[in-house]
Structure formats: structure tokens, C-alpha cells
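Hey, I was hoping to borrow your eyes for a little while. I've been staring at a protein lately and its backbone has me curious. You're getting the sequence in one-letter code plus the fold written as C-alpha cells. Would you mind checking whether the C-alpha cells look sensible for this chain? Here's the protein in full, and shout if anything looks odd to you:
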Amino acid sequence: MEENMNGSTPPPLDQEVVVGEAINSGYEPNKKFTQSFTFKVLFIALLSLLLLIPSLMISSLGEERKKTATNAENEIASKWGMPQHITGPVIAIPCVEGNQKDMYYILPKTLNVNVDVKSQTLYRNIYEAVVYNSSIDIDGTFNINSLLPIKNDSVKVLLNEAYVEMGITDLRGISKKVQLNLGGKITDVNDGGTDGNIQYDISPEDESEYDVVVEGIGAKEAGSCVAMARMDLTELAQHDSVPFKLHLDLKGSETLNFAPVGEVTKIKVKGDCATPSFNGNFLPADRNVTPDGFDATWEVISINRPYPQSFMGNRANEIADSQVQVGLRIPVDRFQKTERAIKYALLVIVLTFIAALFSEFRLRRNINVFQYLLIGLALVLFYSLLLSMSEHMAFALAYLIATLMTVGMVTVYLFGVLKVKKQALIIGAMLLFMYAYVFVLLNLESYALLAGSIGLFIILAVIMYYSLKIRTEDLQ
């Protein structure tokens, strides 16, 4: 072996090449602790947790935007028509005992409701609300005579001062004149009033938001609105069966609710909404939903509900609790999907960091802590892009654009760091698969947990397999 000019012996050729490659790749023969595998694992774990902070900030921003959207929906509804809760018709008869005046209520023996709903979407700036026009035909019979209170000298039943009431949450939604045909007598329903004994516009679990005080006919409270017509029932009260019929053209928003106050109630609703929801205390006996619309039928009898066919006092709570509901809302809005996507942020960040870490030690290319931070911030920015773009376009399109932008930026950046095109593309493909997998989970309902658990198991198995390919000496 030859000696150089100063008498020292040069290193073997193969050793010289290895040292040169290590220097060129950023790895020194004696690596610093900050370049060790142990330090990188600890740093990635800490950084992943710290990146949850901006993720939570974006989640909070989403809640704020959702609240703004809800306010816009409420503003639209306040001008078009609120969610409508319909009760009746109901006969209200004043009864006087001493100095006390109360209302005695008689509910229909049979009640048939046929509804045709036409929905549309209105916009306030970038926000939207589902509203509807409904054509409602109501008919049935009253059995007045057999349900009147027992007559005695101390109680006076004022049949000549009776009312026929129709509980309607927002009377502004009535778009055409209403006429009632009761026992062959046609009467205009011209008066609007309140009756907190029979009508709420809220579900019972929300009643704590209102301070309801019942005095006589009922307090003037939010949600207790009724359309009413005064009628002399002295003659009609002699009959056991009194037919009635009326038609309503009613505007509202989001939901349409009916109380099954008949001894036998049949409700049929059809509409053009392709994504209706059926809620309330009873589900439809029959339903049919197609891309062109839906139709649903309910059949309820009096024994199914916790109130009688005639009563005195406040039954608004029980009546509201028995309602059936057709919802015309958008099934899952963009804010809910974005919030659910953010829940998978830690998974995406950790898996991307692990892939970068494996590439770093297999290729012997150093990725410094600042570069890991930039990659993590790019992954967090995905959710901000998704939230902002989904307000202006369909969620699926916004998700696709945000995914392509994020994956493209991370892939190009890793190519600049690792200097190996193939490895950068592999990590980019993995990240693309992860976003596609999350998108599938967002659209699953019943099987989301099962699909997520199986997916995580497969991902962990793949990571464990590739970790076996890293040489022990590289991890020092």
C-alpha cells in the first residue's frame, strides 16, 4: 500500500466511498443525538401532540362558522316561515264555575291529513336554508255531544262562545284565506290568537327555554299561536258526528310537524325532497323515498298517546310530545363533516411522520426537526382549506381539491428533502390513500367504527412489517 506525501497511509478505497456517501447524504460516521432514531421518535411524538393545538383552533373556527350559518338560516326562516307545528282543529268551549273561567277542549273523533310539500333552497350570502310551500287538506269528524262536560247547576258551558282552533307555530306562513266547513256551515278563520293549553312550537325537552304560564284560555307565549274562528255550537252540539273540512296553504322551513289529536288519525305526506327525515314520536307505517321525492303515511290511534279526547287545563306538553315530523334539512352539512375529518388529524399526521422517518433512515438522508414541523403544518392546513372551500362548493369537490393541494405540496417538499423521487412519490401515494380512506369513513354511518378499526389494524400491520426492514445499526 502506497503512502501519501506526508507519510500517512490512505484509507482503503471502499471505506473512502462509504464515508463520502455518508457525508454527502448528511450523515456523519458519528451521528449527533439530534440525528438519532430515538430523538426523532420522541420529537415526532411531541410534535404530533403540539399540532393538535392548531387543529383544535380550526375546529373552533368551524363551530363559529356553523353558528354564523345557523343565524343566517334563522334569519331566512324568520322572513319566510318557521318550522311549522300543526295541532287540530280543536274545539274550545268556555266553562264558568263561580268566578273561575276555564276552557274545555274537544279533539276530533277522526282526523285525516293530506299534505303535498314543495321544497326549495334560499340563500343568505354563502349560507343556505331549506324552506317549503305546503298544501294541506284536513278533514274528519267531531263527536261533540258525547264529550261535553257533565251539566250541573254550578258549571255553565257557553256553547254560544265556543272557538274552533288550529294550532300553527308561525301564522305568517299562511299564504291564502282559510275557510272552515263545520257541519255544513262555512266560516272564515280570520282571527289569530294564542292558546298555551294545546299548542307549542317546541319539543318538550326544550320547554325550559320558555316560561309558560296558563291563565284561562292560555298565556301569550312563544309557540302558542292558533288560528281561530268563533262559532255558536248550540245546534251542532246535539249531534254525535259533526264533519269538518278545511284547506291550508302554509309556508315553513326545515320541518313540518303534525299532532295526531284524532281518536283515529291518518296523515299522508308527499313531497319533492329526495333526502327527507322522519322523526317525532311515531315513524311512518309506510314510506317510499326515491330520487324524485317521497311519500309517507302515519296511522295513530288515541291509545298510543298520553292525553284524552276531551280535557280541561294544559295538555300542550303531551300534545307536542306526540307529534310526527317530516324533516327537509340537508342530511349532514359541511361543518359536521369537517369536524369529523379533524378527528382523524392525529392519525394522518403520525402516519406521515412515520413514513418520512422510515425513508430518512433507509435512504440515510437527514430530515431536520424544522422540516418535520413544516410537513406537519402543511397537513394541518388541509383542514382550513377544506372548511373554507366547502362553504363555496360541494363538500366532496372541496375535499378533493384540498387533498390534491396538500398531497402535492408535501410530495414536492419531500422530494426536495430526500432527493429521491420514488420515495417521495410513495409517501405522497400513502398520504393520498389516507385522505381517501378518511373520506370513506366520513360518508359511512352504521359501519364507520368497524371500517375504522379494521383500517387501523391493517395500517399498523404494514408499519410493523416495514419496520423490520430497517437495519439495527441504522437506528443508533
